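Note to self: keep these together.
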Amino acid sequence: MAKKRNRPATRRWVRRVTTDSTHPPAGTFKGSAAQLARTMARKDVSPRGIGSGIRMIQYFLNRGGRNLSATRRAELERAKRILQRRVRARKKTAKKR
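Structure:
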């Protein structure tokens, strides 16, 4: 039987992490993949571009860990893929110019 480690609440540093450049609205990560992708692509949420939105989604996935349900994790991964396709499409059109 595996031994369960007791972790004190002080080790949850991730809850205190905030940045000054990104401020997703409350409830952003609870919506559908398309809605989440639209929100993360906005300039007021991700001022440094779509890549910043992708990183925020990945951060949320990492932070959720085992507590995320399989359906929620799949929805977040789908939103990430939508944004990644958008980045690839922009790079492709930029090469044509």
